[in-house]
Amino acid sequence: MAADPSPRLAATAAATRHWRLLASLAIVVYLVGSHWPRLRFPEVAGGPSSDKIVHFFSFLILTTLVWRARWFTRLWSLFAAGLAFAAFDEFTQAILPIERFFNLDDLVGDFAGLCAALAVIHGTAPLTSPPRGVARLRQGASALLAARLMNWAQLAVAAALGAAVGVPLAVMGAGAARIDPLVMGLIGGGVGAAAGGFLALELGVRARIRTLREHRGCPACGAASAPVGRACACCGEPLEATIWAVPDRIRFAGVVAASAVPLAIAALGLGLAVAVLPRLPGLAFAIESLEPITRMAVLAGGVVVAGGLALRSIRARLQQRSSGGRVADASDTRDGGLASVAAPSASSPREVVER
Ligand SMILES: [Zn+2]
Q: Separation of 153 CA from ligand 1 center, angstroms?
């Protein structure tokens, strides 16, 4: 322990470093692709170029990665940076002699993907800042996972498997969607890789949450644990028993009750936007001038934004309904979850983090 004075910083810093590496790589790949001379996506049968879907998914993924990389701590600054990046991308396409051109539809596709990513981040983010209870445990588990390169290898394998499933499925569906097989394959690969990576990430985080609960592990450094209610002996992180509390099992009826109003408002808002916006003078012309595929991307973005806002509201309502969670050991709850709990004797301090 003495040799490693700050494992808390070490785990978080390593995790952030790895996310930054991945986000940087994704940005470089995107910029190379968007400035590749004369690159054209094939046209939708009887229609215009279909790369707005690629723009939408690219910005969805890029924005998510950049948020994970912690270059931005506020959503509005991430939003502004995303807009600036999209504008920069189109501007350099326009001025460089690479036979790529400024395209408003591309920008709109970027914008829709950016908004969708921000809505997902907002909808799934911890409800309190700094995160408390289960959210704190989840954040710690995620950092512990991302701090080890071996785990990234597993995520990469899962992403590759997802792409291997997504590409053939999308190519098979290309005929029905009347979109070029190459574009569909690209989209299928991207979506499959993102889904596979996300699934593996979520399973890994959940496994670590289980381990941390089992060993009363410190969510900051993974050490199994110091006396609860004081600081972690390994890294100094304050530890309350509520961190390890198992959330109440939510009844289906409760979920329905908490979801009804937010979902109704989201559906109403979306319906109103679809009905009214295209009729507004000025905006109507702009919308008409967009390619059909771009309008699809905008609609997809709108659905995700409404869904993200609804998700946030549903989670807040569910949290209000729950009693704050069950603490595994009855002795913990007597003084509001701050009682001391002896560390499991069989666990070495580094055990949890090594798993
Ligand atoms: Zn610790």
A: 25
Tell whether 144 is covered by a domain: yes
pLDDT in tens, 104-157: 888 999 999 999 999 999 999 999 888 888 888 999 999 999 999 999 999 999
Kindly give the distance from the C-alpha atom of residue 256 to the centroid of ligand 1, in angstroms, as a whole number.
38
Q: How far is the CA of 22 from the centre of ligand 1 (A)?
A: 26
* Residue position matching structure tokens 């001391």: 340
Domain check: are 139 and 62 in the same one?
Answer: no
Ligand 1 centre and the CA of 211: distance in Å? 14
Per-residue pLDDT reduced to its tens digit, 191-205: 899 999 999 999 999
Closest C-alpha among 88, 90, 78 to residue 114: 78
Please state the domain count of the chain. Answer: 2
Query: Could you tell me the residue range of the domain that residue 61 belongs to?
Result: 7-125+249-322
Residue corresponding to tokens 């409800």:
127
Q: Are residues 161 and 114 in the same domain?
A: no
Phi and psi, residue 41, nearest 5°: -85, 145
For residue 4, report the distance from its CA to the centre of ligand 1, in Å.
11
Among candidates 151, 219, 210, 232, which has minimal Cα distance to 11? 219
**Backbone angles phi and psi of 281, in degrees to 5:** -65, 145
pTM above 0.85, yes or no: no
296 CA distance to ligand 1 centroid (A)? 47
User: Which residue matches tokens 């950049």?
Assistant: 66
CA of 65 to the centre of ligand 1 (A): 26
Contact 234, 144 (CB under 8 A): no
CA of 214 to the centre of ligand 1 (A): 15
149-177 vs 7-34: helix axis angle to the nearest 10?
A: 30
13 lies in the same domain as 61:
yes
121 vs 126: CA distance, rounded Å: 10
